[in-house]
Every structure is written in structure tokens, then in C-alpha cells.
Amino acid sequence: MKARPFLAAVLAAAIALLSLGATGWWLLWQRSPLGLQSQRLELPLAARFVPRTAPLSLHWLLTPDQPAAYARAVAAPRQRRQAAAAADRLRDGAFAAAGLDYATELAPWLGRESSFALLTPPGASEQPGWVLALRSRDGEGARRFLQRFWQSRSLAGTDLQISSYRGMGLISGRGALLGQDPQPLATALINDELVLIASGRGVLEQALDVSQIDELNQAASAPLQQAVARLGHGVALLTARPQAMEQWLGLPGQLGDEPGAAVELVAALSPASRGLQLDALTQLREPLAALPAVPIALPQQLQLPATSLALLSEPARLLETSDPDPWAQLLGPVLRGALERLPASLPALVAAEDHGPLLWAQSGDGWLLGTQAQQPPLEVLDAALASEGYSNSPLQSHGLTLQAWTKLQSKPVKGNPDQLQAQLAGARSLQGGWAWWGQGLSVLNQQDEGRHAPAERLEQLESLGTPKAPVQWAMDGPTAQQLLAVWQPWRLVSALSSSELTPLVDGAALSLEGDGPSARALRLRGLLQFKG
Of 32, 54, 63, 364, whose CB is crowded by the most CB atoms within 10 A? Predict the structure, then answer.
């Protein structure tokens, strides 16, 4: 009987020690740079001063030194210093683009939140209106910054005007930010905590106006709050309206022909190991007709190394041009452009007639498509290829029965001007209930032998956490580099970092699916990997 109290005491002590250990581990994780991977996404204080109608806003929810600390923590030992320096260059470049010197003007006082909003639609005739919000670690630091900010510009000959608006003190004048020509500027200090810098007094007054009316600012926007809660985690929050999506982000801002089909983007960015993870919602005003889910077993059927692996649940619908739905408007141009760059017309014909699902892989031996055995009908393809001069004939290769579409072409050579050569549009084989369409015999033989599954591409898709998404794509470093090199936002980020970032990319993956039971949003998940 005496043993029971003793055992109870031991058990209580063990539970207490475990609780203390768990608490200590939690505190260490929260303070560790790696804790940024699970940081909760939230609307910052500055969101109250950003109009809901702002074409573009970016909220950065980190202290300025945290990106460098994270880069140092995840980089290989020999590359930690270079990784941290690259993060610091990007930070300094971003503030320099806003006309501020981080080391001398911001480092002593800048806190966890920095926000930037553009208030003028792209292409407007007037000068761009913008607001920069900087949150201070302490009130004295913010106050000293503003004093020095205007003192230096006053000494340069700027005429200052001090006024009050909505009970807040405003300082305005025509001054110059770092490295820029003189322009209208206005500042305000909010509760010794938030510094607002705007492109003129009128713009700053607009920001102060919306802060007083919940129906006009981001902080009280129910749809934005719901999107933030749905996204869950992140260290940066981006919002973009249709016009900004098209002209500044290179994304479609209109889905469908009706005005109600316009979309608005809300995106969160999070660090993920040696990469970045994007989780974005494009909110629609009208429900979106769903695409079928991709079978989970489909990517596992691929049995050869792949530099690129794409999964599409209903390609024929995406390529529809007569009466395209929003999915076709969004993805059709991208898919058609990719298919047109292939060296034969067979992949485009297969995709246009295939009602899904479709697997599309690229390897060293060319392209490979996977469809259901009965998709698409051969007679449709035979007719289309016959118009190009190709005929269908059976072949045997390494014990594999194939159907190949070939035509003879004259290829004169020295001494034999009438020599003919067979040109191959592609070949097809049936394996395990799936039809495989290949650029040549070699790629089909590799798929039949099944020696090398594309482990890296499958891991990338798995990391997205969307196994049933109707659109999925994973790619290696060179493929991702080629795509990013021509994307305007990526080129801007490279310019801000004062270094070439594209060669550092080691791979990327993305998926797209409808979000929620009513499908009033599209959800995009992306992963960008960097070399270790």
C-alpha cells in the first residue's frame, strides 16, 4: 500500500519534468530562426491605414535581421556567411528602393512589422501614390527617426509644413528620399509606435481617413480576415487587385466575361527548409465550376527520371477555345504555349482530346504522356496526323508492342539525292491499364522497364500537401530558372538584392485547386527551392 503514494509522487515528478522540458523546447523553438516556418499569419497594425481598394499591398511580419538569421541556420556550414549576406543585401535593397538607408536610418529602432501599399491604380495619369508604414520597437526610436529625417531634408532646403489632421500631427514638404529627386512627402507618428511615410499630404490624409472607417480599411475587412485565417501561416502577406495582378505580377486579373468574375489575390510567404513556400487565394465573386481530382496513384505510375512532371485532371477542358470557362482562361494559354514548344504535334493533339487525367513528363530522352487506356480515341488522332502526312503502324521494340506515327521525308545526301528518312511524330504503348505516348522508342522502353522513379519530382509534389489537386507541376532547377528569369517580380527581387539569384534556384513545384465547398476561390500552393 505504501508503494502507491511513492509511485504517484514519481509519476507526478515525471509529468512535471516532461512539462518543463516541453515548455523549454517550445520557448527555444519560438526564439529559434527555424520557428519562422510555423509563424502564424496575421494582419499587422498598419492594415488599418491601408484602403481596401489599394491595388497592391505588402506586409512584412519580421524583424529586419530575422531573414539573415534564418538563412544562416539552414545553409550548409561553408555557405552560412554568404547566405546571410544575400538576405541582408535584399533587405537593404528593398529599403533603398523606398529611399531609406537601413543601416543609418532604420537599424536602431525598426521593429517587427513593415508595410508598403500602392494607392494609385497602374497606368494612372497622376504620380503613383504610396504609403510606407514602419513599426518601432520603442516610441523614442520612431520619434528620433522623424526628427532626423526632416532635419536632414530641412538643411537641404526643404520647406516644411507642420499641421494637424484628425488629431494627429503631420509634417509635409517637398524633399528627397535617398538617391531620388525632390518630391512631395508627408509623415505622421501614430501613438509613438507606427511611422507613416507617404507620397504627399493628400495620400497620407487618405490613409488616416480610412483608419477611422472600418468599412474602408483592410484591418476590418471580413473577407481578408477569413483569407488570412484560411492561409494560417506566413511571414509576409501580399494583397493584389485585378489591375495590379495583370500589370505588376503578370497574373490574370479577370476570369470570365462578367465583371463579377474579377479576382483578388491574398498570398502568404513562409520559409521552408532551404526554400520558400507560397500559399495564395484568389477570391472570386462567382463560384467556380470544379475540375475533377487527379488520382493519387497517377504520379506513382511514372518509372523514369524526369526533369519536369505535370499532372492535369482534364486537359481537353483547359484547351477549350470556343466557350472557355475560367479554368481555360487561366491555364489554357500557358498549356498551349508549352505544347507548341514541343518538337511534334502529337502531344497537343493528345491533350486536346483527353478528358483526363493526363501525366506529362520531360526526361533526357524527350517528352512522355500518360493517359487512361481508352483516352483519347485513336481514330481522332489518326485523322489529324494523316492530314500532316503521318500514318499509324505497329512496331516491336525490346519486346514491347508499340503504335508509331511516321512519315517518309526526302533527305538528300552527297551521292544519293533520293535518300528517304522516316520522321516520327510519336509512339504509343499500353502498360498496366495506362496508355503511354512518347517522343521516341527509348523513352517508352524506359517507362516499360521501370527502373528509375522520379523520386525528386514526387517529393516536391508531396511537399505541397495537395495530392488531389487538378493541376500539379514539379520541376528541376534548370526548368525553374528558365521560367523565373522572364518573370517581372523575380527580376525586381534580383535587382533589389544587387546579385543574380536565378542560378541559386534548385527546383520548384506548384498546384492549383478550388478552395472551399462553394469554390469561390482558387488556391495556389508553390515551393521554390534553393541550392544548399
Answer: 54
Contact (CB, 8 A) for 74 and 274: yes
Full 3-state SS string of 354-396: CCCCEEEEEECCEEEEEEECCCCCHHHHHHHHHCCCCEEEEEE
CA distances from 77 to 82, 89, 358 (A): 10, 20, 42
Rounded CA-CA distance 221/51 in Å is 10
Cell matching residue 19: 512539462
Full DSSP string of 3-61: HHHHHHHHHHHHHHHHHHHHHHHHHHHHHSGGGGGGPBP---GGGGGSBTT-SEEEEE-
pLDDT per position as a tens digit, 275-309 = 999 999 988 777 778 889 999 889 999 999 999 99
C-alpha grid cell, residue 26: 517550445
Extract the C-alpha cell encoding 372: 487512361
Distance CA 122, CA 56 (A): 10
C-alpha distances (whole Å) from 366 to each of 10, 224, 400, 446, 487 are 66, 44, 18, 11, 25
- Which of 16-20, 123-127, 151-155 has the largest mean confidence? 151-155
Q: How many angstroms separate the CA atoms of 531 and 509, rounded?
A: 15
Query: 469 φ, ψ to 5°?
Result: -60, 140
